[in-house]
Amino acid sequence: LSTKLTSAMRTLKGKGSITDVNVASTIKEIRRALMDADVNYKVAKEITDNIKDQALGQKILIAVEPGQLLVKIVHEELTKLMGGEKQEINLKGDPAIVLIAGLQGSGKTTFSGKLAQHIKKSGRQVLLVACDIYRPAAIDQLKVLGEQVGVEVYAEPENKNAVSIASNALEYAKKMGKKVVIVDTAGRLAVDEAMMAEIEEVKKAIRPTETLFVVDSMTGQDAVNTAKTFNDRLNFDGVVLTKLDGDSRGGAALSIRQVVEKPIKFISTGEKMEALDQFYPDRMANRILGMGDVLSLVERAQQAFDEEEAARLNKKIRQNNFTFEDFYTQLQQIKKMGNIKDLMGMVPGMGQAVKDVDISNDSFKPIEAIIQSMTKKEKENPDILNSSRKNRIATGSGTSIQQVNNLLKQFEDMRKMMRMMNKVQDGKMKMPNLG
Ligand code: GDP
Ligand code: MG
User: Which residues participate in GTP binding (predicted)?
Assistant: First the structure.
């Protein structure tokens, strides 16, 4: 997905602004990329329609290329669609009861062990309950995991009634003063009526504080259908997305959230008991987009650049009116964006290039001091700077005449460039005859 999106974004790069025409093909590519990632067509269309509306409504900032701006919009949209904020598991109740549901092989038992360890770390007494009565090895699997994370496992190998095991376990937990009970259940390879009825019964009997639906992120489009079926019967509280360490596509996270309107609470990223993370929508959006730091660059630029100020400067440049005062203002804007070196490092491909270069905000200090030592009249009209004025400025700013002269020369060059650009734009200047 990420390479597709990257190329979709690239199409927009270098275009002056976001318009209907240049956004349309990019939007189409984004939609195709989402569908390739197993996001269902309706969901993908909804997402891209939203993105398009927002993109067209955005004012373009001079500092940000439209492509980058679109990345930001897509990122925000994906984050929002996946719930915005991270959602905590509800562990109220004494004991709190967590019911784990899902298809066989989705990672329920593994997740139960991980969750037990996660909760145990916060200092609460946990009990794991083995309610998979169909596979003889299931109890042993949970026992091994329980031992590994140091959590007691409740099991009744002879009992073939999941509802009664769960109820007995609950009673045992209360007696032993356990604070959280995690009930691992059986799952079939595909949704079937008997299995659904059983877990429904278990749910009714133990009244869990939290029912979590576990789903294998590698199953793509099927994951969405399974989620819908489970949600219709169980009305679960949250989703656990497993096997995100594999070659999984981001689509499941997006579509499940959209279709069942339940938050994803955890992601599972490996077979080790430590491989459990809370679900952060913005991080998942990052991962889907694969665009790393470009986003924070865009954000910082947007915060720092005052659009009106930019327009004002633009006008002054157009009128050949750019003064040292304006130059100083512009320096402050650049500095507001953060450390210069960091900023350059965030531009893709630039990180290596500036690694060993010493650019710090301090590099601007002498320039700022020189400008601050000028009178208002001097800033507006540097032509009046004779040698006695230059001497005074150098002394006042703690710099040398040479530094003052250098800055004056750079400034004059800059103004010349601006005048030339204005002429080109006005069509007053003919291209030099190269023949
Ligand atoms: P259950 O049938 O739903 O209880 O699923 P299990 O917990 O037994 O997991 C099925 C298989 O998937 C096992 O081999 C697990 O080790 C593996 N598994 C579970 N979660 C993950 C995960 O996040 N990443 C990877 N790579 N494998 C996982
Ligand atoms: Mg299991």
Answer: 102-109, 184-188, 242-245
186 known member of a binding site: yes
Q: Per residue in 56-93, pLDDT tens? A: 665 544 445 555 666 677 778 888 888 888 889 999 99
Nearest-10 Cα torsion for 73, 77, 79, 85: 110
Note down the domain range covering 233.
96-279
The per-residue DSSP string of 171-213 comes to HHHHHHT-SEEEEEE---SS--HHHHHHHHHHHHHH--SEEEE
Beta bridge partners of 100: 184, 212
Q: Is 243 annotated to bind ligand?
A: yes
Report the nearest atom of ligand 1 relative to the CA of 269. 23
Structure tokens at 107: 């990672």
| Nearest ligand, measured from the Cα of 111 | 1
Give the whole-angstrom CA distance, residue 338 versus residue 120.
Answer: 41
The verdict on whether residue 145 carries a ligand-binding annotation is no
Q: What is the pTM of this model?
A: 0.65
Residue nearest to atom 2 of ligand 1 (CA): 105
How far is 278 from 23, CA to CA, in rounded Å?
A: 34
Helix, strand, coil share of the chain (percent; to 5)? 60, 10, 30
Pair 81, 100 in one domain: no
Q: What tokens appear for 240 in the block? A: 């656990």
- Neighbouring CB atoms inside 10 A of 433's CB total 5
